[in-house]
Inverse folding.
């Protein structure tokens, strides 16, 4: 069942032993403001830490018509809604994890006239694909275990660094670590199960 941003914030506040809020987007209480201040930063950090299946995306890279630095052969446009590029998939389509294409992200002016643009430099010839973690904001896409890990990670921040209850803060950090480990383990196991699954034989009709 999908949860809202406000529900995630309230889960965090509940873990931190603080008063719940009515609306994360509009409420002006101190608890709403601190959750609003840190919500996106914690979400992005959690997405970056693991290559989550729900945030994984593969996209054909568009080659740019520009001079490339001596270290690289090709320049590609940086895809939209990218949080972190995990790897460049070889143009052959054959993935060798021991010898993946190297790449570099470059920002600023380009020789094609753009004044400030991020692009990908690599020696991998077109067609090349980027596999990356999307900057997923839609809470309806969050798996349940990710929601739990997110709420606890946010709770650690909401709890504060200046509290006197060090034991409580330590326990909250431990719970957040356990929730993250459980979420990433389930995510990795599901990915492994999907890679290993092959259709069984279809019984012939008499």
């Amino acid at each position: 069942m999908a949860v809202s941003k406000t529900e995630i914030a309230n889960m965090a506040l509940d873990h931190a032993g603080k008063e719940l809020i009515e609306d994360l987007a509009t409420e002006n209480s101190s608890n709403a403001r601190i959750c609003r201040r840190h919500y996106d930063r914690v979400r992005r950090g959690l997405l970056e830490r693991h290559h989550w299946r729900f945030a994984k995306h593969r996209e054909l890279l568009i080659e740019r018509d520009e001079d490339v630095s001596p270290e690289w052969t090709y320049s590609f446009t940086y895809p939209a809604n990218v949080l972190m590029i995990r790897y460049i998939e070889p143009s052959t389509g054959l993935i060798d994890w021991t010898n993946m294409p190297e790449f570099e992200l470059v920002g600023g002016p380009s020789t094609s006239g753009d004044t400030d643009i991020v692009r990908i430099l690599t020696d991998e010839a077109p067609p090349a694909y980027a596999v990356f973690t999307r900057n997923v904001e839609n809470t309806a896409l969050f798996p349940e275990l990710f929601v739990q890990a997110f709420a606890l990670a946010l709770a650690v921040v909401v709890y504060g660094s200046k509290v006197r209850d060090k034991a409580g803060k330590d326990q909250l950090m431990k719970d957040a670590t356990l929730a993250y480990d459980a979420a990433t383990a389930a995510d990795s196991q599901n990915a492994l199960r999907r890679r290993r699954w092959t259709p069984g034989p279809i019984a012939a009709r008499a």
Helices lie at 5-15, 30-49, 144-159, 166-196. The longest strand covers residues 82-89. Confidence is low (pLDDT under 50) at residues 194-206. The chain has two domains: 5-51+143-157+166-189, 54-134.
